[in-house]
Amino acid sequence: MNAKLSIREVEKVFATRTKTTQALSPTTFDIADGEFVSLVGPSGCGKSTLLYIIAGLEESSGGQVLLDGKPLSGPGADRGMVCQAYNLFPWLSVLDNTRFSHTLAANKDYYAPVAEIEAKVNRVYTLLDLMGLADFHNAYPKELSGGMRQRVAIARALANDPAVLLMDEPFGALDAQTREEMQELLLLVRLHWGKTIVFVTHDVDEAIFLSDRIIVMSPRPGRVRADLRVDLPQPRTLEQKLDPEFLRLKREIVDYLHESRSPTAVRDELLRRMFKKGGEEMKEAS
Ligand SMILES: Nc1ncnc2c1ncn2[C@@H]1O[C@H](COP(=O)(O)OP(=O)(O)OP(=O)(O)O)[C@@H](O)[C@H]1O
Ligand SMILES: [Mg+2]
């Protein structure tokens, strides 16, 4: 396999003044050119951390990320990122949000060839059309629904024509119907541009529906627990969510996710915290 992205022994330790947290154990896997890979795993297992390290927005404590065989350091136009929180600039219109990085670049590339600038401008308009935002160029984020804001965020992430699209629970805050619409839209984007996509989600159905491959991570400190191929024909349709292979894979992933949790783990943890709190109150009172 010719890897587009190689994650090589990447690990992360967060150190504050009072404690250190190993968020990610040394983690290694490759992603092929054009592949759609989802990361799933329990809360706190380091999915966002890993995505931010790939984006170059967080430094790893060890290991390397390679893009086309070259080690990455810091962020770059070759990777676009979409976060769960709609991190649009509230004071910029839809159009200005989408072309924000071009505006930044324009300050540096004052003498860029006109054809290059034209291509960028056309790209932004095409993206907004594809996202169904043609009539909203001048709208501000507060005037948009959650789904529309996330479509702007996707358009912005694609504005630089990145080779890799990184998405951290991009549809987590959307209602079920909008979420399905966004999933179909993302598949369309992928079909249209053939991007390599790394997608973090809590939703197992979403992961199976979208992905070629799913990496299941273990609880913190995260590591690869399972690396599963999704053997469902492309292009995907919503009906496939009832396909026996879809359901079999869902069972397998849910089993991996549950194996680390005892049936009473949540209740035990709550009781532990209640008694700890009670104990501290009693100490203070005495
Ligand atoms: N800036 C930080 N400083 C200290 N610890 C951090 C920091 N960012 C994350 N962590 C810790 O690292 C671990 C992994 O966090 P991360 O956000 O990557 O998890 P996640 O898998 O994305 O979880 P979720 O599914 O809830 O989004 C957590 O224990 C978290 O508390
Ligand atoms: Mg996260």
Query: Quick one: biggest sheet?
Result: 6 strands, mixed
* Arrangement of strands in the largest sheet: 6-7-8-3-9-10
Helix segment tally? 9
The CATH superfamily of the largest domain is P-loop containing nucleotide triphosphate hydrolases
Let me know the number of strands.
10
Report the uncertain regions.
none
Q: Overall 3D geometry? A: globular
CATH architecture term of the largest domain: 3-Layer(aba) Sandwich
Instruction: Enumerate the distinct ligands.
Output: adenosine-5'-triphosphate, magnesium ion
Broad structural category: alpha/beta
Radius of gyration: 21 Å
- The fraction of residues in strands falls at 15-25%
Classify the fold: give the CATH topology of the largest domain: Rossmann fold
What is the rounded distance between the termini? 66 Å
Q: What average pLDDT do the residues reach?
A: 88
Question: What number of structural domains do the residues give?
Answer: 2
**Relative helix content:** 40-55%
Order of helices and strands: EEEHEEEHHHHEHEHEEHH
CATH class bucket of the largest domain: Alpha Beta
